[in-house]
Amino acid sequence: MEVMDASAPTHVAHRDNHTHRDVNGGWLRPAVFGAMDGLVSNLALMTGVAGGAVSQQTIIITGLAGLAAGAFSMAAGEYTSVASQRELVLAELDVERRELRKHPKDELEELAALYESRGVEPKLAREVAEQLSKDPEQALEIHAREELGIDPSDLPSPTVAAVSSFGSFALGALLPVLPYLLGASQLWPAVLLALVGLFGCGAVVARVTARSWWFSGLRQLALGGAAAGVTYVLGALFGTAVG
Question: CA–CA separation, 243 vs 68, rounded Å?
């Protein structure tokens, strides 16, 4: 834990001890979700097929097909989701922009009333509102932050989200297939590598959360292992029934 140096200037001490993680980026959530989903879904898919006592070639084809299908599906879904969200935000910004143009006095009064509700003296609140409203773009940004809770200059990118999701899913889904591509003929090396990957992903996620690395890693390991175990049993049951 860092301790503030009392002998340092206040602004320097505050700057050094009061920093935050970036929680608004458009890449972190899809990247983390993609890697986890790629690992868990492809591991579960491959163990389910392997439980049916199929050939090594079938397991490899299944894993590669799951990787490709899942990566493209994740990218398309993430792009559509973020693009729709962005379009909605831009539409609301247009509404606010028109209101500022058609009813500038009403919007100014609204902003002044907002600052008053937060404890600013009425006269000062109006002066601040008037000052901020002189620049139309600044006024739009202030109203968007206060009324919509968004930052117009920091909207998520659909392309960044889609590329992050595609790459991370493909990377995660590749892990359980890799041992087979390198010559493995049994399931356990694929399961072992995938479980190590799940623990590693969970531990990495802990670096941007308040959880300890070992707790996050073990939690993801347990969830992924459970999914793989259930699908293997189902694959074995279905394989027996079909056979």
Answer: 29
